[in-house]
Structure prediction request, 127 residues.
Amino acid sequence: MREYQQNFFWRNLLYSKWIIFFLLFLILFLINKTFDIYLKYSETKQNLFFSQKEESKLLERLNSGQDKIKNIETNYGQEKYIKEIYPVKKEDEEVIIIYNLPPITYAIPEDKTWWLEIKEWYNKITK
Prediction:
């Protein structure tokens, strides 16, 4: 009889409304956290793909830069580089003309929003 009562007690406790509510809440909480982990995993996977693509671009750029440096280290490469950078009139010419032009500056127009106009108007009034 005592064993039956103990089983009855545990069965009533296990099937009570609060325990069922608690277990459902726990299951929903675990599902939510699992879904959050899945979202982080998918984002990380996308970032890995993007990083690998960027790495391949940078390695390609590095290799092309190293090729250019190796080419410039030769006499022919130096001449070719100087001819690309500085305007030389003829290939037989041994004189390099370096132009010293003044830098070109452009004035950037200010975009005045209505809020800045009101602020300037207010500053003029309060002075």
In short: The longest helix spans residues 17-72. The chain is about 75% helix and 0% strand. The mean pLDDT is 82. Residues 1-62 form one domain.
